[in-house]
Amino acid sequence: MIDPGHEPQAVTRILFQDFPTWMMVTFYIAAIGAIVAFSYGCYVQIRKYRRGQSLSLSGIAKGLGNMVEELLSHRNLKRRDSSAGKAHALIFFGFAVLFIGTATITLEYDILAPVTGWRFWYGSFYLWFSLIVDLAGLGFVAGLIYMMYRRKWLALPKLDYKRPDRNPDEPDYDRSWYRREDWLFLWTLVLIG
Question: Three-state DSSP class for 162?
Answer without folding.
Answer: strand
